Amino acid sequence: MSWGTELWDQFDNLDKHTQWGIDFLERYAKFVKERIEIEQNYAKQLRNLVKKYCPKRSSKDEEPRFTSCIAFFNILNELNDYAGQREVVAEEMGHRVYGELMRYSHDLKTERKMHLQEGRKAQQYLDMCWKQMDNSKKKFERECREAEKAQQSYERLDNDTNATKADVEKAKQQLNLRTHMADENKNEYAAQLQNFNGEQHKHFYIVIPQIYKHLQEMDERRTIKLSECYRGFADSERKVVPIISKCLEGMIHAAKSVDERRDSQMVVDSFKSGFEPPGDFPFEDYSQHIYRTVSDGTISASKQDSGKIDAKTTVGKAKGKLWLFGKKPKPQSPPLTPTSLFTSSTPNGSQFLTFSIEPVHYCMSEIKTGKPRIPSFRSLKRGGPALEDFSHLPPEQRRKKLQQRIDELNRELQKESDQKDALNKMKDVYEKNPQMGDPCSLQPKLAETMNNIDRLRMEIHKNEAWLSEVEGKTGGRGDRRHSSDINHLVTQGRESPEGSYTDDANQEVRGPPQQHNHPNEFDDEFEDDDPLPAIGHCKAIYPFDGHNEGTLAMKEGEVLYIIEEDKGDGWTRARRQNGEEGYVPTSYIDVTLEKNSKGS
């Protein structure tokens, strides 16, 4: 089947068909372009969605910890990868399909134009041959009529007896001329006719079939190109299917990784305060006044005895009480009131003393406002800031924060130590091979690294001290919890409103809470904290600025007292003559320890 033989007379229809094919190709290219825009917009919207719901990790405290949150953020990461695959689809379609279609459409238009021009030229040449043949035919026809007229005129004059011989001869010559001209036009017409028939045969059997064959091949190539683009369109999507499947599998894996038990444990670890729950409220028997004996003597005696016993009991038991700052306040016996002390009689006539605990409204307010207890004022005395030691957090949370900080400082210390070792090795290499570098050029970096190491060790030492303090308190509280009294006259657990505990259940103070202020309580804390004795002295070899917190500045040649040896962290605790204490680098001083020395 060939267009040249089957459609030899359908030049105009083939022109329209090839134009329709190119228009359809460009229409499909426009479709691919819009699909690419859809994919790009879809990927962009997915990335914006992921960016909107991804956490802004400005600090480590905001990092997700719960398995459900981690799974959600993993899903967001997989969705971000999925959006990337949509961008890959758009890029592949744009490069393999849309770009190829646009280039081929331009080439197709040029080729079609060339073939149609060749067909029009062939048709014009055939029309020109036909016109020449038609002109020769008309001229031959005209000459034949003129020759026929000349013959009729000659015959009429030849038969006319009145015509002269000259007229007859002239008519004969005219006849011969017209006959000759008719013969020439006949020959020319025959030649033109033969030429036209040859050109027409060539046109319809050689030229036009060849042109139409080229147009047919062009249209078939266009169809093949469309088929390839259809396949490339699908392949662009199919190539990313394995990666998209992995993204979906990652989402499913993230969903399976959610552990409700672990999340519940994280909630406990995040919000556990370390405090003991409040004990049972005691029974306050207000009806005991009704059963008192009528005897005034007995009542008065009971009151006197009660007053004596109460004073001794209150003071004696307060001595064994562990208060908030590790020291007992000055014992002050509050005035006895009927609400704090009264006597009760038993059915057999004996009397006993009853001490009331804090009022119910005080306990309830203490439970509702369960604020973290203020830690020891020792850290404030030694210059520690209020929030650096996490004293605003409950004990358990404070312990975790301090442990995290210590781990981070240890990692930084390890990095600085590795850097110091590397610098020392490089310095040794420079000393052995001076041509490789100047060893003195490494000295500033070594000094900076040593200062960083000293600073980190001091920070670690300070945080470990705070951690030991917290662990000591939390451990003590866990061991000091006891069960409630069998008569429910005391609370379960001996935590006072100030957060203090006692060492012995028999020493629990059953008097009323000390609700009045003790203005000298903190002063006693500092006054009772005796300075550590000096165990030697030292002389500063190098000056030390002591800008860091807890350190002690010193000048070269200055003599200080040693009150605590280096524990292996590179710091020694020293004291000046004026009593100012702090830590100094052990490598900066010349230490002399004294045997059996006593503090000055």
UniProtKB/TrEMBL annotation:
It comes from the Eukaryota. Residues 130-174, 399-433 form a coiled coil. GO terms for molecular function: GTPase binding; lipid binding. Residues 1-263 form the F-BAR domain. Residues 471-485 have a biased composition (Basic and acidic residues). Residues 522-531 have a biased composition (Acidic residues). Residues 471-534 are annotated as: Disordered. This is Formin-binding protein 1-like. It comes from Monodelphis domestica.
